[in-house]
């Protein structure tokens, strides 16, 4: 039981950056923009967050600079991909390459470090110990003692869902993505809405990057985002572009990550555990495909 | 005259982004306190300054030609196979396994079997996303992305546990037998026969795309899937064919890295060959010639970058910055081009957003 609770606690922790990136990418996705640059945005935020935390010792400033870096990339991505109408996938991949190169380059040239940057002076995020939650069994074990960003991510889920389905902005964004011609003809500012969608994603990726770098490791490692941006894209697709579906698939990855961390102690090769979320996405999508096919066949017969 | 003018324009369009990116790289080296002139001299001399240097550049380009072609052919058909990286890993492992376990074969025979094994691994691994795309409409972009992780995890497991070389501190297999090694041309350069095989692959794909019915069908498929269905093409079958050709190319690329470069399977050996191949295919506009040119460009940067690092001390990561900038600037030239990825993504999003997707599928079913 204690084991299980600890795994669920880690699940929530590991889910957070993926879910933030995915919920961030969701707006762009719904506005008809494939944001491959989620990965680079997170990495940039992690890097500049760590540097700022090291230089100033101020976690709030680190958070601000990290998000700012991610937002700047959001502007670059939007400018090349939306304003100049460059191919979005190429622009996204270019930004990822650029950030990976630039973070290593700055690390080596300015700080004389290769690959990793760890220092006593880097201030990390503090875990919150919530008095009321602490005393509730089970719930407390899972939900207590996380970084503020973890709690924020749960709030983000609610807000993202609400904005997407219950506000004008959400309707506009979905219209731009689903029926661009219609959006143009009713006079919606298509490009502006796309910029907004990408930039909301940037802010959330900024949070995700900070949480990766400054939660319990408090250091920067080259490519420390480890493909979470692409996993987030898969979560968006698998969740069929809904906020809740996206979060559920992010949870699946978080759970598998947590299992794999747990398995490292007992000598089962973690590789197979780590494969679970990737394979299960494929299985889930295949089953959905099969069911769709069946139901179509039935309706054809009728 | 018109054609010449057009050609010059095309060349200028690709050279300008490269020039701009190099300029920024130069400035970055300068403000980082290195001797920028010296660094750039070593960058170019290290990549193109002599016979040995050029050979090493071609060596660096070899795997990229394979992954670039693999991506180009599927993207040209409108199939977004992002799984070259994973297919490359499985091809590399299959070749290594056959390379160290089959005894008593003649060199030519042994190499051929290893290459076929690598190609087969790539084929099988591409068959999964191909079949579920063709018959269950599972988005190939998601499935291939996911399968990359599976392939890398699986081969890492194989090289860390059942097939780990005894006493090795790294996750790698034992060496392949000498009969399976792809020979080098000269001892001073790492360039091996694999480069010629890459050129053969290039020629085959070029002819296939431009001179055969399959090539025509691939182009048609990429332009308009519903039209091709309407004229009676078996789209599902074509999807499987194109995806698996793509997998075979990537698998071969991995096999050649094992047989020519490492002489064993090393877990994590690929510095993102798959992703770089994807980038090359995109900037080469899915054209085999464009892929070849892109692979050489990235080969020059990679090879010259390491000489720059060794001789002047400028971190190699600068090359990633330059690469990223080149790619970024190249997208601008694609203004208003008939570029189908954007359209495809829009369609994917539309079909997810509404239930329109199932209507399209319905059409497919009826046909």
Automatic annotation (TrEMBL), chain A:
UniProt xrefs under InterPro entries: ABC_transp_permease
Segments traversing the membrane: 31-52, 59-82, 88-111, 149-167, 195-218, 230-256, 268-291
Membrane topology: Multi-pass membrane protein
Name this protein carries in UniProt: ABC transporter permease
Superkingdom per UniProt: Bacteria
Biological source species: Vagococcus humatus
Location (main, coarse): membrane
GO cellular component terms, semicolon-separated: plasma membrane
Automatic annotation (TrEMBL), chain B:
Coiled coil residues, start to end: none
CDD domains referenced in this protein's UniProt entry, alphabetically: TM_PBP1_transp_TpRbsC_like (cd06580)
Record field: transmembrane: 15-34, 54-75, 87-104, 110-132, 144-163, 191-209, 239-256, 276-301, 313-332
Membrane topology listed for this record: Multi-pass membrane protein
Localization: Cell membrane
Source species, domain of life: Bacteria
Keywords: Cell membrane, Membrane, Transmembrane, Transmembrane helix
Gene Ontology molecular function, alphabetical: transmembrane transporter activity
GO CC term (a single one): plasma membrane
Alphabetical list of InterPro entries matching this protein: ABC_transp_permease
PANTHER family cross-referenced by the UniProt entry: ABC TRANSPORTER, PERMEASE PROTEIN, GUANOSINE ABC TRANSPORTER PERMEASE PROTEIN NUPP
Protein known as: ABC transporter permease
